[in-house]
User: What shape does this take?
Amino acid sequence: MEQLLELARERKLDRVGATYAVVAWILVQAASIALPAFNAPPWGLRWLIVAAMIGFPLVLVLAWLNYGRAPAASSTAKPFEGKDWLLTGLIGLVAVLLIVQLAFDYRWHHVSASPENSSTPVVAASSIAVLPFANLSGDPKKVYFSDGIADQLISELARTPSLRVAARSSSFAFRGKDVDVKAIARALNVRAVLEGSVREDGKRVRIAAELVDAANGFQIWSESYDRNLTDILSLQDDIAHAITEAVAQRFLGHTVAANRAPKPRPIDPEAYKSYLQGQYYFAQRTKEGILRAIDLFTRTTALAPQYADGFAALADAHATAALDFQVPGAVPAALDAVNKALALDANNPTAIMARVTVELLQWRWRAAAADMRRLEQLHVNSAAVWHMRAIFFDYMGLAQFCGAAEEQAIKLDPLSFIDHYNLALYRMREGRFDEAARVAAQAWALQPGNPDLQQVNVQIALGKHDMKGAEQILSRLIAQVGEDSPYTAAARFFILVAKKDYPAARKFVDSVAKRFPSSDITANDLGIAYALTDDMDKAMMWFRRAVDLHEAQFLPVTYTNPLPAEVYADPRWKALRAQPEVRDWEDARREIATEFQAGE
Assistant: This one.
């Protein structure tokens, strides 16, 4: 041992090691200051420290080898003097840097891209959340007005392609909660938060707004406005432009050209109040709320016949009434409002989305695709547009596009239950059950106990061949909603089918079929249920009825609800799929898949 130590001292390895330690320490200290200044990820410094530790024995080995290469004739030469000693030090430093580079590359390309980390969102530099404005009018009933102003600012800001704006449903979730701005920004994945207040008094309105940097809580921009209510549209446009400029200057270091329309016209104050009230009730998404919104939007358009957004909102409400609640006469009413809105503003995204909804209900697939392309060209980066895109692809049986669209919607609306719920469905249909379970868990955190989600969780568990897990979910569902609940019955049905207990499962389907059409179950759903219980005669009867009733859900069933092989071999099934309207949908599906695949 003593001889080995003497040899190491003779070759000056102690001096090389000490020098390396000093250089590595200086390098780590410098990195601890420099890396955060350049917004480097925290793991960068950790990798550097690890590389320095690994480099220590490497440098000693290089020093030893360097000594061993000394010329044989120079028996009196002393190693590690002059340029030899400096060369070894440089080799060591290069080795360290090489290790660091390799580590960073591995981390970036492999670890950061892994499924476990892909769900962690990256905060966009120019991203903002608009919180509900405080109502300072002295009348609690006027909360619709302060909410409406904030909501309209969200819509205005979303017209700037380079700005990512959190959706209303997520940012408004913090109403009345004592939550720090930094926590809100983390939850909504934004860099800046806009807070404000509104005081509406007769024909005048006073708006105060403050933009806050969520990273440090410092104010970026603030302003107060006192205007006549007839100029409210122009005021909102001015505020949105000022905010966009402030965000761009703060986080991007330059101005951003906003997609500004011509200066809005003055509007009747009563018309605008009706419009904001309508948006307040429409946001509730209940049938009663939507019908009330329709009345208020109708009043808006009567008082302000040149206000495109009023007609667009009316079209959206009618289209939603038709899609979600099958309200008679809603489709032609929606089209009439769409046409009037687009005559006033050919690029109104709300009106275009309403027309997409109607086109889907009318089985006008190519027209819907053209309007979806139009929305792309307008570069309106809103959760509503991405959600509409997912619905469109769902109607076309293109699950591979549905999930990507919903993921974009969730980035803008991270607290949206329906987007998480839909994404879990899409991933389940793709057979990606682990990912479906992960997204379903996120949806559960947003709405614990949701019985519809429990049914999906049962299907996900069965997809993973986890019968025990599915039965545990069923037990919790029974405790929550009762043995006789339709949710419980539906969950039990899926379990019975998985166990191939077809007689018991068929008995349940028979009981549901007796209540058609008063129940929420469609003819297509009954066809699927009977097919899964191995009753081909009843399955074909209900699939035939689905076609006769023009149920759009029948069209993509082959792609969204895989059926037993016996169904596809049945001549009656082949005859149904050979119907002209079904063949037209299949042709449109192929065309649209190719078109949008090319655009990805």
Remarks:
- Residues 267-380 form a domain with the Serine Threonine Protein Phosphatase 5, Tetratricopeptide repeat fold (CATH 1.25.40.10).
